[in-house]
Structure to design on (600 residues):
């Protein structure tokens, strides 16, 4: 809204604005250059990535799609498996977080008992805790409770990521007028029907914001799955890439770049399709957290 | 910004009117609504946190095999030169990155709210790096820096100041777009009539910027400053992937100091890199780190709340 208003403003100093557009176009090209560098280098043979990083691939350095083919099974671990695990963990965690924290947030703000307040402030407190504080004990706890597989690690994410989600949901639930729920209660809805039929649909904007934030966090998270999961069996994409670079000596840079590119593409596609929601979600999360 | 303020005001008025009609049936179903989240929260946060706090006073190899030794770990942590070094390195990095990121983000946001052509496209481009994870970002930039430096027969791992500025560039690339989004939201909330009034009164555009716009976006500035500060302190993935702490120097007494190692990486290396006997020290370092980050976070919460009350 506000932005549209800006555009209507009398075009004072129009030449200056064209100049700004040109400047930003140039800056933007430089800004996305790193991603193009990755694409460029993924077509080069290993030895040329370091020596001719910025040159276009020529007849000598051109590797075609060899790097992509090689990258798929690179490092003795199939790439599609790490994509699959990343996907499973991200989707499952996000779903768990949204499902359980929204209910808890509703409960907290409607019941408002001392226990609720303790839980709420514990959640707020957990938002400022750096992961290093709990990483050793958390990975041991996860191991002891058998939460160290891609299908059970979402429980850990639910626990460690609950803080922000509860905070955001509580903020929104408090703004929903009580009268709606009271009307539902008078019409004979129990707490379950009231929540799932009345409250949950109203939470949609916050659900989207929280989902975006959690997806961005879980998909890119490296240390938590690295410490919790068994690296020989389960690797997410960041873990896989770190393993490749971490193996000293025989790093095939071309194939690594191909892998990095393949891992960026879905992210960019996701970004371009949900851009509006992502930017909104990020702004909401930042303002609140 | 404005919306959340309104929400907060509403929230205060509603939480006092808590209807019994709703409250009792919900309370009876607490096992369904509250319990799962609280259980996971205890497993994923409360228990590891308390255990970590306790173990920082112990000598331990695993979580079940410990011996209380009081404040020894803390004394050792502060005596560790690599920890002190990484502490000041991190602080310096955080401050420098806060300045760069916020100045750049504000400039970009200000330019993009002037109604120039292609605003949406530019915003899309500037935000894009945020979606890419820290590990991948680190490797992209290490390729680029090495591509430049190989021509001079060297690499980013050879010189600690290259590592420092490399990481600054990386962080700017990643975070400018993020902070820009927050600044744009703040700038759009500046009342139009105020700016117009200033123009009618004959204020120059610089005067309008410094006397009207900046004071009005102060809440966004506070949020962004704190966000980039805590991000700087907590940085791990990018640090690990770009330089991994290299190059290191060996002191005369045999200890090594990684010259581009930040706090989080230092703690990680103390936990998993060295002998398992140093885990107690690592946990003590982690507690110190937690207190530091938590203090910044709590100051932030208070200051943003104060701002909201004032307006």
């Amino acid at each position: 809204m506000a932005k549209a208003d800006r555009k209507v403003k009398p075009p004072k100093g129009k030449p200056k604005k064209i100049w700004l557009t040109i400047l930003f176009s140039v800056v933007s090209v430089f800004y996305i250059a790193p991603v193009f560098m990755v694409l460029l280098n993924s077509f080069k043979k290993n030895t040329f990535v370091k020596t001719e990083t910025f040159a276009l691939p020529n007849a000598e350095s051109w590797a075609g799609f060899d790097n992509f083919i090689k990258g798929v099974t690179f490092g003795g671990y199939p790439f599609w498996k790490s994509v699959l695990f990343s996907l499973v963990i991200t989707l499952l965690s996000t779903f768990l977080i949204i499902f359980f924290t929204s209910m808890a947030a509703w409960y907290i703000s409607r019941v408002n008992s001392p226990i609720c307040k303790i839980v709420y402030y514990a959640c707020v407190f957990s938002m400022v805790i750096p992961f290093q504080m709990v990483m050793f004990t958390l990975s041991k706890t996860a191991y002891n409770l058998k939460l160290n597989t891609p299908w059970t690690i979402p429980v850990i994410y639910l626990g460690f990521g609950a803080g922000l989600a509860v905070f955001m949901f509580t903020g929104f639930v408090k703004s929903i007028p009580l009268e709606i729920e009271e009307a539902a209660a008078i019409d004979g809805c129990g707490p379950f029907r009231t929540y799932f039929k009345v409250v949950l649909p109203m939470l949609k904007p916050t659900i989207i914001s929280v989902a975006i934030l959690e997806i961005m966090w879980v998909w890119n998270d490296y240390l938590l799955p690295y410490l919790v999961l068994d690296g020989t069996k389960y690797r997410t994409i960041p873990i896989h890439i770190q393993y490749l670079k971490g193996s000293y000596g025989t790093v095939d840079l071309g194939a690594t770049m191909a892998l990095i590119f393949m891992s960026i593409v879905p992210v960019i596609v996701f970004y371009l399709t949900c851009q509006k929601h992502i930017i909104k979600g990020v702004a909401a999360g930042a303002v609140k957290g | 910004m404005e919306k959340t303020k309104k929400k907060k005001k509403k929230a205060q008025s509603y939480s006092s009117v808590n209807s019994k009609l709703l409250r009792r049936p919900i309370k009876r179903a607490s096992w369904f609504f509250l319990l799962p989240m609280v259980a996971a929260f205890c497993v994923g946060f409360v228990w590891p946190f308390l255990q970590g706090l306790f173990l920082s006073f112990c000598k331990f190899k695993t979580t079940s095999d410990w011996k209380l030794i009081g404040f020894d770990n803390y004394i050792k942590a502060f005596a560790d030169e690599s920890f002190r070094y990484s502490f000041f390195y991190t602080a310096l990095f955080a401050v420098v990155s806060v300045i760069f990121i916020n100045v750049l983000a504000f400039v970009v946001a200000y330019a993009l709210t002037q109604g120039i052509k292609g605003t949406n496209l530019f915003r899309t481009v500037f935000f894009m790096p945020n979606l890419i994870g820290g590990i991948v970002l680190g490797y992209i930039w290490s390729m680029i820096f090495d591509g430049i430096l190989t021509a001079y027969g060297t690499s980013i791992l050879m010189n600690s100041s290259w590592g420092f500025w490399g990481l600054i560039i990386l962080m700017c690339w990643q975070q400018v777009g993020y902070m820009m989004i927050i600044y744009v939201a703040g700038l759009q909330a500046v009342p139009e009539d105020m700016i117009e009034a200033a123009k009618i009164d004959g204020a120059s555009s610089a005067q309008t910027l410094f006397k009207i716009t900046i004071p009005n976006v102060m809440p966004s500035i506070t949020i962004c400053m704190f966000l980039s500060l805590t991000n700087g302190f907590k940085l791990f993935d990018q640090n690990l992937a770009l330089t991994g702490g290299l190059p290191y120097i060996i002191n005369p007494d045999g200890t090594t100091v990684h010259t581009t190692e930040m706090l989080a990486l230092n703690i990680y290396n103390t936990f998993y890199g060295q002998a398992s006997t140093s885990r107690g020290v690592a946990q003590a370092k982690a507690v110190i780190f937690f207190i530091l980050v938590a203090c910044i976070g709590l100051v932030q919460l208070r200051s943003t709340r104060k701002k909201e009350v004032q307006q």
Q: What stands out?
A: Strands of chain B lie at 58-62, 65-68, 248-250, 256-258.
